[in-house]
Model the fold of this input.
Amino acid sequence: MTTTTSTSLASTRPRLFRLADFRRLWIGDTVSQAGTAVTVLALPLVAIGPLGASPFEAGLLVMCEYLGFLLLGLPAGAWVDRMRSRRVMIVGDLGRAVLLATLPLAAWLDVLTLAQLYGVGFGLSVLTAFFDIAYQSHLPQLVDEDRLVEANVALEATRTVTAAGGPGAGGALIAAVTAPVALAVDALSFLASALFLSRIRRPDPKPVRHPGARLRDEIAEGLRFVFRDRLLRALTITAALSNLCGTIGTSMLLVLLAGELGLSPFLCGLVFTAEALGGFLGSLLTTRIAARLGEGRAMCVSVAVSGVLWLLALPFFHADWRYAVACVLQGLGWTAFMTFRISSVALRQRRTPAPLLGRVTATFRFVVWGCMPLGALAGGLLGQYAGVRTALWAGALGELLAVVPLLLLVVMRGRRVGLDNCLHRTNT
Done:
C-alpha cells in the first residue's frame, strides 16, 4: 500500500525543471559557471604569459583564488545564517563582475600587474565563499528534501556541461582576443546570473536571530555539529585531503602545459574540457552507482578509483599523442569522483537542521577549501625548487590517501557494520 501511494505521489509531482524558481537558480548558476570556465584558463595564462610569472608566482595566484575560504570561511557561514541567502548570492555575483571587469581595463591602460591579479583572485575567493554557502543553504528552500539528490545531480550535470565547452572555447577566445578580454566575458556572465537570481519568486525571509546570540558561539555550534558527527567528520576530512593534494598538482598543471610544453591556449583548455565531460558523465551515473553499491560503499570506491586514474594520467603529459591519453584518464578520474562529490553534498544537506545549514556548509568549506591555498603554496614551492612534474606526482600520490577516513569509519563501526548503516543514523 505504501509503495503504491509513493508511486502515485511521485507520478503527480511536477518534473524538477517545471519548478520555476529552481529553474531560475539553475539558469543563473549555469550562466555564471560558463563564464567561470573561461576564467579558469584565462587568469593563470595572463600571469604565465604577458606577466611572465614563475612557477612559485603562479602557485601564489592559485593560493589567492582560494584564500578567502581559509580566512573568512567560518564567520561567513554564521553571517549567511543571519541574512537572506538569495540577496547574498546576488551581491556576490555583482561584486565578482566588478572585480573581473578591472582586469581588461588595466590591460587596456597597460598597467596590469601580478599584484592586481592576486588582489582580484583574493576578492573573487571571498565573494565566492559567501555565494557558495548561501547557494547550498538556499537550495533546500526551493525543492523538497527527497529531491535534493536529484537537484544536486541536475546542477552538477549542467555545471560540467558548461565547463566542458568553457575551457576549449575559452582557449580559442583567448587566442583570438587575448586573455584579459576573455575575462570580460566572465564579468558579463556574473551580471546575467544576478539577473536570473533576482527573478526567483519564492519568499526569502530573513532568518530569526536569537536575542543575545554571539558570532563566536554560532561559529562554534557549526564546528561542533560537524566534528561530533562521525560521518560528517569523515566526509569533511576525505574532501579536505583530496583538495589539499589535488591543488598541489593542479596549481602547476598550466605551468607544465603552457610553460614547459609550450602548448597553445586551445590545447591547454582540452584537459579541462576532458575533466568536465568526465564529470558530466559521472553526475549522470551517480544515482545508479549509489543504488547498486550503496551510498557509503559507492563514495569509498569513487575516491579510490579517481585517485588511481589521476595518478595513471601523469606519465602521459607530453606534447605529442600521449597528451590525448592523459586527457582521457583525467576525464575518467572525474567520472569516478563525481559520485563522492554529489552524494556527500546531498547527505550533508539531509543530515543538517535548516537553521544550522549555513554554518555547517561554512565549516565544511573552511576545512575543505581552506586546504586549497595551502596546497597551492606547497605546489608553487615544489614546482619552483623541485620541478613542476615533481609537484604533480606529489599531489597525485597524496590523493590516494583521501579515502582513508571513510575506510576507517567502516572499521570503527565494526566488522559487520558498514558505512551505509551510518548514513541512516543521527549524530553518534
